[in-house]
Amino acid sequence: MTSLRNRVRTGLLGCAVAVISLVAIGLVVLIVVAAVPDRVGLLLSVTAASIPALIYATIVLRLDRYETEPLRAVLACFTWGAVGAILFSLATGLLFQFAIEETFGAQIAEVMSVVIGAPLVEESFKGIAVLAVLVFARDEIDSTLDGLVYGALVGVGFAMTENILYFGQAYLEGGLGEFGTLVLSRAVLGGFGHPAYTAITGAAIGWSRGRHGRGIARVIVPVLGWALAVTLHVAWNGGLVLTSVTMDEEAGLLKLVAVQTAIVIVPAVLVLYAIARMSARHELKILREELGVEVERGTITPGEFTAIVDAGERRRALASAQARGGRALRRRQQAFFQTAADLALRSHHRHQGEPSKPRLAAQDDEDREHLLELRRELAQYPVPGDD
Asked: Where are the domains of the chain?
């Protein structure tokens, strides 16, 4: 009976989330259509914002070589950025500007909203998504790299929707010329802005994931990460305002954005990339240690262990699977790698002090059984020449 009640609650919660999500998506679509009533402008804006978003999301996801992020978490983070964070940021930003305008006047309120209000509001609502993954889907965020990836995906989604609105307005007001200039400025030169800001928050939250019961730093560091994300966002917005005042009027938007990109975005992206590489090496160390035990248990073979922890062997195994059985077999090979990584990381967190729960032990057994099933499926497609 208890199990039935739990399933009913889960089903009702899922339905509620689905309904709220559809309503939110509908609201964003209405906002976009109302803001860009021209069909050509809307089509151009959606295309010019979506293609870079797809490219940036692909780059971000490729940062994690050893553990593929689950599609549901990827889509949830991207969608929150593109829909939820946009809606809450628009509403809260208007309230912020109204409150400041009542005190300081319209001109000061406009500058403060851009330089201070937008970074505070947007980074708060974007960061909520990564925090939600930590709270409600803890098993899906295992490291600094996972948090960085999820945060960046939220930023990619947010930038996509925001760019649609900005691009549409540029087309309506200045035609293709102004539209093209803004696309180059926001989607190309400054394209990694929003992903970089929220990646900082996400990386800090991901770092705290591995610090269970190990001091107050696991609470302080995410707050500092959010503060740094806000600061970087303030530096970008404030820098654009300041640079537009101090530089030659004939410099143009592209030059202004190029200067800001070199000062703010490029250093941040380079540091984040270095953090991602270090975290990936740490994940590899964990896989080597934890899966070494699984080799001794007989869960995986020495050859499978090598394919999991060696990037070259992994690529060859995936290519071989595709050659033998197409994309379906490649997905099974990838699932083998992912299941082994999940098993290793779950064991690592227990060794770091997280309580061992019966559910997690059962999940370990399920993963070992799944690895066995996947091995059997992969073996049905022998390598040519092995007969």
From this structure: 12-281, 298-379
